[in-house]
Structure formats: C-alpha cells, structure tokens
Amino acid sequence: MTDLIIVGAGPAGLTAAIYGRRASKSVLVLEKAAYGGQIINTPSVENYPAEPQISGIDLATKMYQQATALGAEIRFEQVTAVREAGAFKEVVTPKGAYPCKAVILATGCENRKLGVADEEKLIGRGVSYCATCDGAFYRGKAVAVVGGGNTALEDALYLADLAETVYLIHRRDAFRGDAATVAQLKARENVKILYHSTVTRLCAERRLTGIEVTDTAGCVTELAVSGLFVAVGRVPNTDAFAPVVDLSEDGYAAAGENCRTRTAGIFAAGDNRAKGVRQLVTATADGAVAATEAVRYLNSL
Fold first, then answer.
1. Same domain, 131 and 202
2. Which of 100, 109, 130, 259 is catalytic?
3. Domain extent for 192
4. pLDDT higher than threshold 80 for residue 91
5. CB 108 within 8 A of CB 270
6. How far is 35 from 12, CA to CA, in rounded Å?
7. Banded model confidence at residue 42, pLDDT cuts 50, 70, 90
C-alpha cells in the first residue's frame, strides 16, 4: 500500500513527488512516456525563477534527480484507470493495479497539432505552441500565428510587441475570440490577418524559414517567417479519469486552487486542471499545492 501515487512525471508530478517525500510519505510516480512532460521539447527556458537560461530537458532532469534522490519511485507505465476500492484507491496499468491512499493526477495536456509534414521535427526549431514561452526568441523577426480563438488572438497581440511582422492565419472568415482583442489586432500596423486560410507546408533547412499558406480558393502564398505559433487548441489527458473526476466541457479536470477534485483523496495538478494560466511555473505551483493537500488528507485518515 503506497501513501501517494502520482500519475505523470512532468513538472507538476515531479514537484508533487518532491513535496510528498519531504513529508515522509511513500510516493510512486507512474509515467507513460518520458519524464519532464512537454517542457523537454523546449530548447531554452528563460522564464523560470533562479534559472536565467536552461534547456527544458536539463531542467526536467534536475527535477527527476531531486525527486528520486528523496526516495520517490518512478515507473514507466501507462495508467488506464483510477478507481475507488473501499476506503482506498487503485491505480490501474497494463501490468496490474496499484493500491494507494491518495492520488494526484498530473497528466498534463497535448497541444493539438496542425498535422503538417515535419511539424514535430521543427518543434523548438521555429515551431512553438506557447507564445509567452518562446516569443522573445523572435524579437524583430517575422512570425505567424495559427488559430481563431482567444489564445491565438492573445498570442498574436503579445507577439506584435516583439516581432517585426505577425501573420495571423485563420481558416474561417471570423474569429471565435473576443471582439475587443480582434479590434486591437486590426489596429496594429505590423499584424496582417489572413482569413479562409490554412498552413499547408513548412519550409525549413535546419530551422523554419517559411510557411506555405493555402486559401479556400486554392491560392497558395509563401510567407518568409522565422517562427510559427500554433494555437488551435490543447487536449487534456483526462478521459481515463472521468469516473472519479468531474471534467469541464473541454475535458479539463474540475479542481479549485486547492487542487481537490470531487472524489476525496484524488487531486489534479498542472496543465490538465481547469484554470486560466498554463505555464511551467504554474505547473510546479500546482504540484506543491496538490501534494500539500494530499498530505493533509493522508494525515486525517
């Protein structure tokens, strides 16, 4: 019987493991792929306190090493279900069911991809899914943003203060985001909006050098850009937990700032939690909060 099982070894999960072990609880972390989550795809992190510049993989490795040095056990198994088992919980993987007293779901999200050839290969080499994370690398350059919701609009507005030119590409004739933000973008001289358009090809050598955009009439335009920011939605990894956690309309785990879900002893932390800001620092904050609340729950048993 483990005190605390953490599902996911991204920044939220690893931080939760550190806090759980510092509270002298037995901790098992289950991760389906590699530790570190999406941050390992970021070549340079420059907005994390006390680390002016560090690669995503180096930062994730430091977190992993700190958690394991404290005694957290990490196994690479995909969790397929979490269920209640009387007063306790069971976390299920293809290798079996792990009994525990509390669970933290830190499974994160996956960025919805465009589905264009070489997209994955160019992540961190011109293709990004986070303007606030990577926008500063494109100061004074031409960039493009793809999407029609508030995230795309806000990304374009943020980048307009940094980049020489921002192309905002949307497949429809009107944006789904706030009209006020659209008005601000239209007033910016360095923002060029392309309606009825999709990105159909990425041009690159070692890094992105441009994109091919095709409109609904079949007209193809090549744009010389150094960065492509994709904001067509994110997909939280929460479907397997619907029996024990309420999910928002777009699939995020319903949990407040205390990270508690509707099921006692089950917590949600990181990008899979319904919240307004999803950044590295907010993921680690969630991990600390969720673990602290889990320890309180364990001490009350």
1. yes
2. 130
3. 113-230
4. yes
5. yes
6. 11
7. confident
Q: Do 40 and 81 fall within a single domain?
A: yes
Contacts of residue 249, defined as CB under 8 A and 6 or more positions apart, other chains included, come to none
* pTM assigned to the model: 0.76
130 is catalytic: yes
Active site residue 134: yes
Q: For residue 43, name the pLDDT band (cuts at 50, 70, 90).
A: confident
Residue-wise DSSP of 112-138 = PP---TTTTTTBTTTEES-HHHHGGGG
133: phi then psi, degrees, rounded to nearest 5: -75, -45
pLDDT at 41: 73
Q: Would you state the pLDDT for residue 38?
A: 83
Amino acid at 276: G
- Among the listed residues 3, 100, 109, 134, the single catalytic one is 134
- State residue 234's pLDDT score: 84
**Catalytic: which of 3, 133, 271, 286?**
133
